[in-house]
Amino acid sequence: MSYDLFMASIPVILEGFRLTVIITLAAFLLGQVAALPLALAAASRHRVVAWPAQFYIFFVRGSPVLVQLFIIYYGLGGLEAVRDSILWPILKEPVGCAILAVGLNSAAYVGALLRGAITQIPPGQSEAARILGLGRWQTLTRVVLPQAYRDVLPVLGNEITLVMKASSLASAVTVIEMTGAARVMVSRTFAPFEAFTVAGLFYLGLALIFAWVFRFVERRSAIPGLSNRES
Amino acid sequence: MTDRKKAENVTQTDAITVRGLEKSYGSVKVINGISLSVKPGEKVVVCGPSGSGKSTFIRCICGLETRSAGDIRVAGHDLALDCSNIRDFGGDVGMVFQHFNLFPHLTALQNLMLAPRLVRGQKREQIRKSAMEMLERVGIAERAQYYPNQLSGGQQQRVAIARALCMQPKVMLFDEPTSALDPETVGEVLEVMSTLARDGMTMIVVTHEMGFARSVADRVILLDEGRIVEENTPEAFFEHPEHERTREFLKKIVHE
Predict the structure, then answer these.
(1) What is the ipTM of this complex?
(2) What predicted TM-score, i.e. pTM, was given to this entire model?
């Protein structure tokens, strides 16, 4: 291993760092936004609502993210309806496709997780809320979700790390994020060990930051007297 | 005023009216034709063996359980058969559960303040003040900032009672409020309930606490197999019950 090559890799890969962070955060956010309606639909008593959501979760979790990314990047552009749609500015860009693929994937995982947490809240909680006069929406937002999200928070910290790792797949559709930048470095110097080691260390550092942030949020939102309820 | 009109007037002002209540799970009838009228300020204790339908009965009245047939009118609200209009109660019907069902992510005080804020839309300071008064009334004001899981069962149940009272209910329903409690905390909850009764609250209490029934109830009802077996004053119920089934039940309760 060459020290010089190692140091030379750092600025090149740092250029991809920004895109990795953007893809990770945007995909995670998209996943969170889409996961909630997905979870609520999947937990519904009405089959017409529950089945499509459950099928989506099954379909997305049952196929590789890379394949889904290829479908979105190479496949959707071929459809005229897509090219005419308002989403085209996003789908035209490889970064947009990567965010969409990883985000929709994350939505399926988090949706399944959240569905489980929602159905595990004791029915007595909603009963108490409704007899006090709260409507369905108020019961959901004030009583059920605050508890469900606290339950899934430790797993969400894990999920953002998974999203970060999946973001490296964007390099397969020409995005020069960290993994892509490492490959650029390799093609220039033929030093894969140094380049990918640097990229790996940056990923690790990012994962550590996410872990810290989530542990902080977890501590802040913990319910006193209830710390040992889970696991 | 004719007698008939008087009779109508009485039903009009009943706090709770149940007529011909029936409830089935599939082919199993758990409630088999119950009718009951409770006047404002009246206290009715409902007891019966497990599986007699007493819990289902009280859950039907508060609209948490749908029914197969019968009319229910509580605190001036006619409850739809499918309970779709439960929100009309808007806190007029207070319910106390066996397992308290406090919101674990909120402090005792926040538990009390949630519904008045969201449902009644009162001012925050005003709600806070009346919530603190309510906690004082159930003797737990010093624990206002505690979370439910930091409180004993008896304390949690007192907070749950206070939470229901914050909505100024016209009727309070209790579903075995002391069954999940440690024996030493049962007394403090019964005391709060007795005070509430003395203050004139209309109450239906499902319980096996016969001492409470004796001292607080205006009427005691024995349910068995989804029917009212005996409906009597406490003295008559405990001293010389009309039905053999009641004697049997009381004997078992005493042995416990």
Answers:
(1) 0.89
(2) 0.87
